[in-house]
Amino acid sequence: MTEHALLGLASVVVLGITAQWMAWFVRIPSIFLLLLIGLAAGPLTGWLEPQALFGDLLFPAVSLAVAIILFEGGLSLQTVVLQDIGRVLRRLVTVGMLATWLIASTAAYVLLGLDPSMSALVGAMLVVSGPTVVGPLLRHVRPIGHLRSTLQWEGILIDPIGVLLAVLVFEVILIGELQAATTLIVKGMLIMVVAGSGLGYVSAKTVVWLIQRGLIPDYLHNAVTLMTVVVAFTGANLLYHEAGLFTVTVMGIVIANQKAIIVRHIIEFKETLTGLLISGLFILLSARLEVSHLTQLGGSSLVFLGVLILIARPAAVALSTWGSGLPWRERAFLAWVAPRGIVAAAMASIFALRLQAEGYAQADQLVPITFLVIIGCVVVYGLTTAPLARWLQVAQDNPQGVLFIGASPLSQALAQALQEEGIATCLADSNWSNIAAARLNGFTNTYYGNALTEDALDNIDIDGIGRVLALTPNDEANALAALHFAELFGRAEAYQLAPSTADSAMVPHLRGQFLFAEHTHYHELSRQIASGAVIKTTGLSEQFDYDAFQTYYQHAAQPLFVITSRDSLLIRMAQQPLSPIPGDRIVSLIPAEVLAVVTPGAVPAHPPAS
Fold this sequence. Notes:
6-stranded parallel β-sheet, Na+/H+ antiporter like fold, 4-stranded antiparallel β-sheet, alpha/beta
């Protein structure tokens, strides 16, 4: 028995992480593979039996895992953006939610043949969205302006609010009379909003106060924070069913927006933990599905899915953005993004089990309908959102721009060369003289301040920016900057200069990728720029190829970037030399002594016009 349980737990971990790994490799939403593998391991093969594995602990464990996921989602929200998106956001989680509930409930009654009470419950469960599906979609699409913030906030706030709505509908079903349930509904809303938010605020402030005063050692910051999340969630749930989700969401938002302590390490830990929890939850919940229930779903279920995507979401967005002044392109994009995730799956599983115990005949339809909607939304939105965003011109399609950490003359020279070739740049520096000089030299996108602060990711204008280059004289600051912005751009697009001294060894996973040639550091590059070296762009052709370029500059030119014929930017790395071809443009550093002896005009500055 022990060996069977161990095998089951190991299967959940291995299958979940493997699914996410495979999804990354083939560039598809991970939730899709998680659901498919869960179905294969559960109802199709009988390999995994979650109920037998966990018993009565399954759904309490699911609820606690969802709470941690929502807490991590709250940590990603910055209140500074609410001044721009607050009005639309409030409508989306109130008017928009009610519109979605009404339309979804009506569609469930008409199309799926559910009775009114069960239809209302299905509609309530499907108003939620969630960070587990919205976040990866937004990272892939990278919408411009405040669309990203609006969808992030909605995806996180709608979950606890939607859960409360579903719980209230569930209680009405059990009581059987709406009039008798009115007091319960009002009481539940007051407890969630007042007690839930108050408990979340106090819990967050307690953690911050303890860390700020050094009462928690560094190695226990994450553990104590997690413990507090569990205590706050459990305490709120004891006050009212599922009020804990709202509590932990508020707790995450408060911790993320305070200024007393740095919480980056807590956020990183919760992101890792959330990835593990999401993998396990989707595997376990999809493994509980019954094949017979799935096969009973007919064409009316697909029509129901179509109503949610083509009618409910557009109507909710239309009502929420009426008179907001949002351009029609942005409203259209908002109307097309409403995937469902782990919260809907968890609610369906929990409610179905409890209603089946009460003898409700249609309770067994809750889970297959919900999972059909989840899978359908993932497929439809996953395949169409990015092309639609490009068509609507609201996405940063493969941004080639560069964020320079450090605005020294070296950074300005590199940025100037890239800007002249149509590559977007942004210069960030905490040294005012560097920023002032950059602005005097015509750089319009600059950021004055510490790029490593919590607010930098939200305040730096990254429209058109797809990578970061850390070019300060401080090797440790470069490494920190690369790690900091790897969260936004990915590790593959986070670069830094090599250390200035040979004994400054850096662990690979604690730094960015080393730029340019081996042992090319800040002081050497700055010395060359100060002595007259020039950052020059040279076009290659069939007549003047890369070998001819090197010969012309006496093999002394140091290639830094290559801009391909399709205007893609390639960056030279210490362990990965560039291989330019005709039609490419090379951005290189030409030493002053070489410039003094080469023949002026012998090499074209740009490739021939096509």
